[in-house]
Amino acid sequence: MVARVRALLRRASLDGPEVLTNGPLSVNLSAAEVHLAGRRLTLTRREFDLLAFLTRHVGVVCGRTELLERVWGPAVVHTGRTVDQHVAQLRALLEDTPAHPTLLETVRGQGYRMRRWGG
């Protein structure tokens, strides 16, 4: 119950912009919608939370443990493979069109990073 309340508070946080953008990627936090080059993507709630977190921290390497704690919550028990699986699913959605380069990078031995578009 505590983890759910924390997750709701995290989602309702007003300390940042309502819409996060990185090139053609747009993450609308209040509407829980993601658009890539004008096309709406259908994501699970966890995929959305993970993508929003990475988009909020563009260019920053985030380790699996940090992602588990910040996206899934400290009370939830998962492994780093959970993060790997969700990142793979996001990559499949984000790289659906060949015109878009890889936005989610693996930093070997460290974790994942959302690349700044065009950089």
What does this structure look like?
Helix 3 packs across helix 4. The chain is α+β, with helices and mostly antiparallel strands and 119 residues long. It is globular. 39% of the residues lie in helices and 19% in strands. The protein has one domain: Winged helix-like DNA-binding domain superfamily/Winged helix DNA-binding domain (Arc Repressor Mutant, subunit A, Orthogonal Bundle), CATH 1.10.10. It is built from 4 helices and 6 strands, in the order αββββαααββ. The longest helix is centred in the C-terminal third of the chain and has 15 residues.
Summarize the helices and strands and which ones pair or pack.
Blueprint: H1 2-12, E1 19-22, E2 25-28, E3 33-36, E4 39-41, H2 45-56, H3 64-72, H4 80-94, E5 104-107, E6 111-114
Helix pairs in contact: 2-3, 2-4, 3-4
The run of helices and strands is HEEEEHHHEE
Give the end-to-end Cα distance, rounded to a whole number of Å.
Answer: 41 Å
What is the share of helical residues? Answer: 25-40%
Radius of gyration, whole Å: 14 Å
Report the sheet-strand fraction. 15-25%
General form: globular
Determine and state the CATH class: Mainly Alpha
Q: Looking at CATH, which topology would you report?
A: Arc Repressor Mutant, subunit A
The CATH superfamily is identified as: Winged helix-like DNA-binding domain superfamily/Winged helix DNA-binding domain
- Count of domains: 1
Strand numbers in spatial order across the main sheet: 1-2-3-4
Instruction: Classify the secondary structure makeup into a structural class.
Output: alpha+beta
CATH architecture: Orthogonal Bundle
**SS elements, strand count:** 6
The major sheet is characterized as: 4 strands, antiparallel
- Average pLDDT rating: 85
What is the helix tally? Answer: 4
Organism: Deinococcus aetherius
Keywords: DNA-binding, Phosphoprotein, Plasmid, Transcription, Transcription regulation
Protein name: OmpR/PhoB-type domain-containing protein
InterPro entries: OmpR/PhoB-type_DNA-bd, Sig_transdc_resp-reg_C-effctor, WalR-like, WH-like_DNA-bd_sf
